[in-house]
Specification:
By secondary structure, the chain is an alpha+beta fold. 36% of the residues lie in helices and 22% in strands. The protein is globular, with a radius of gyration of 25 Å. The chain binds three DNA strands through helix 7, helix 12, strand 13 and strand 18.
Length: 512
Amino acid sequence: MTLVLTDLVATSTALARTSSRLEKRSLIAALLGTAGDDVALAVDYLTASPRQRRTGVSYRTLGSLPEPAPVTSLTLRQVDAAFDALAAVQGSGAVAARAAIVGDLFGRASADEQAFLRALLIGELRQGALDGVVVDAVAHASGCPLAVVRRAAMLTGSVSRTAAVALGGGTSALEQITLTVGVGVLPMLAGSAPSIAAAVTQVGDGASVWVDCKVDGIRAQIHKDDNVVRIFSRTLDDWTDRLPEVADAVRRLPVDVAIIDGEVIARDVSGRPLPFQETGSRVARQGAGAVSLMLFDLLHLDGRDLIDEPHATRIGELARIAGPLVVDHVVTADAGVAERFFETVVAAGFEGVVVKRVDAPYAAGRRGSDWVKVKPVRTADLVVLGVEWGSGRRRGTLSNIHLGARDAETGEYVMVGKTFKGMTDEMLAWQTARFLELERDREGHVVWVQPAQVVEIAFDGVQRSRRYPGGVALRFARVLRYRDDKTPQEADTIDGLRSMLAEPDSRDLQDV
DNA sequence: GTCCCGCGGGGAC
DNA sequence: CTCGGACACATTCGG
DNA sequence: CCGAATGTGTCCGAGGTCCCCGCGGGAC
């Protein structure tokens, strides 16, 4: 039994049409019931994650498409084969080669199929169903308990493989899936809280909480099986080759078999974290520039699975085998103590803190309330310089605003970033009217406005920028509120933002 | 013919 | 990465 | 006492910043 693209596209279209999760679930379940051997492929496409992580094809390449075919018989496997071919293309002439494959594939697709494939390749499926809904649907289609399906998905790191096992072998087959050294596990994620006090009461509810120093690096899940070490990124890509020194460090640990969770980060000789940009750069450059490893969890140790053990137990074992690499922490029920720890680690250059329930298991793949992060928040009053028309459910509203800081010398405003975050529907409606009033010019989907409206922006920090003229950009900017009590002349200055940049000390920029 | 730069794709946060 | 909206389910409120 | 309102857990999608690499085309 094989699945035809048309059927998948029909359910995708139906998914987009309804907002009911239950209905989405039954639509997907019905499709999976007919998918036969193509369950995994169907799930990969429905969750907008084709096997081929990189096809080299996106928005730009798909600008001009051939005429849709009036009749089609495209199968999922044929699509998969075309994606394989795309992924294999490299070297001189690659652009033309990809265009040829795309032209052939799309020429065999109907209009609806073209739209679907295009959305899939661009990564903008927007049918209101991804991993969460699909996992639910897999449980329904297979008759397996949702909790069992979820757990299998977390342990295999793959919804599609889980789906194939569930539909093929049912609950008993799913239950045979266990934590396996060498197979990436979905990493446990943290929710967030606005303050230490909130986090401590939310997580601890009166009891003691575990407070970890939060490292602003790149997540790494490390599997050690004697001398064989594999390192997985947060999305479970294999990054072993680009982190040789990390692999060596783990090889030297006094354990045979382990799965460790931690963060990779570039630091100066004193151990102080370097800006995230530096660690990102070093990691991407295949091990150019040393990075160090900071650990905060242990999922498996020498034949013993620890994911269901309490956090405190796991960390106890971790400290035993890798003490010096474990991140700083305190255990307390006192929000004041946690607060002081937070201040200390932030002063030392770390990102903040993660508050953890002491007895929480390792609940992979879920952004639960067992781990809650808190980071310091910066704030600035900036001027709106332009706005962009929104897309998707923000179509028809002026959404993404361009932010400017005041240049005290010239009196002009220099752009330091954009944001679309923090706006309620009400604010969206207000700002589209407001910025249309202030409109000065248009260019594509951006509306340039007179620099008259001040907005209070929250952000995590500033970073060095090559794109923006002031040389700085905001990280994670979001709107707090519009300020009608301030004139643009009272907005915060670009110099003020620049002063928040960590001063690079060239002596310190050494490998550790 | 080579080098460099711009741009697109893809991945971190 | 952040945030708001929406849905599903649990709990509490009000006639 | 039961239906309606309110609260909670989760998911999704709106798009941000940076980085690197590879390809292609223009400058020299």
